[in-house]
Amino acid sequence: MWHETDRLTELSAEFAGWRIGRGGSGHWWAVRGNELVRTPDIEELRARLTELTETG
Q: Cα separation of 47 and 24, whole Å?
């Protein structure tokens, strides 16, 4: 089982340029410029960041 800090480290390395974290509400978030992605599921966050990175 991954620990939250391990997941944050992994995502930050995978998606350079994004600030990634987890809020008090339990939602994962990522911010880059004026783009914001927020979701309760880390795998959904990864999928959405992959889409944005590929198209942007």
A: 22
